[in-house]
Amino acid sequence: MTSYPDAATGLPQPAPVAVPSRPGALLALVGVAVVSALAAIVDGVLYFVGGRDMALDVAAETIATITGASADSVKADGGALLDAALDEVQSTLQVRGAVAVFFGVVLLLWGLLALRGAVWVRVLLTLAALANASVGLRLATDIEGGTAAIRGVAWLTVVTGLVVVALTWLPVINRYARARKGR
């Protein structure tokens, strides 16, 4: 018997378990998820920044289509109808921007948490990436509102969102998650 508690007792000890190293695919997954999330956030901010001008153009074109006048003359005349249409269109564009920012933040959160490789995080990351890509697709194909910059960033959101889904379930990430769980 010994007075040292950490002394070897002669009994077999379990071998130390090596910590699995993070695969490059997992780091790529996190990187692409962050890019997709930031693209969605930028897209939403672009809607907020240029919303009034876009809304004025859309409202004037809509009224011009109904009245038969040119969009420029509708803008010059102004009036209560243009103001009402402008408020309605601007409200719609702000909601679209807010939705893009919300889903971008959600994807950013789950993308950063995916560094651990846990299955439950990857399930939520997949759902967030699909929702983010869906919002991006809606913004990219929007006829009434959006500039070329908004559409371009929205297409980037769609493509990177789908890449996130593909990377999330690669076998190497599944092996890493199993090895990490088994330690």
What does this structure look like?
The two termini are about 30 Å apart. The protein has a domain of about 110 residues. The mean pLDDT is about 85. It has about 180 residues and is mainly alpha-helical. Helices cover about 75% and strands about 0% of the residues. It contains seven helices and no strands. About 30% of the residues are buried. The protein is rod-shaped, with a radius of gyration of 26 Å.
Quick recap:
With 183 residues, the chain is mainly α. The protein has a domain at 25-49 and 97-182. It has helices spanning 24-49, 51-67, 71-77, 80-113, 119-140, 148-168, 171-182.
Mean pLDDT metric:
85
Percent of residues in helices comes to over 70%
Element string (H = helix, E = strand): HHHHHHH
- Total of DSSP H or I helical runs spanning 4+ residues: 7
- Indicate the low-confidence ranges by residue numbers: none
| Strand composition percent | under 5%
Rg over C-alpha atoms, rounded to the nearest angstrom: 26 Å
**Distance between the amino and carboxyl termini:** 32 Å
- Characterize the overall form: rod-shaped
Largest sheet report? none
Structural class: mainly alpha
How many strands?
0
Protein name: Transmembrane protein
Keywords: Membrane, Transmembrane, Transmembrane helix
Transmembrane segments: 26-49, 93-112, 119-140, 152-173
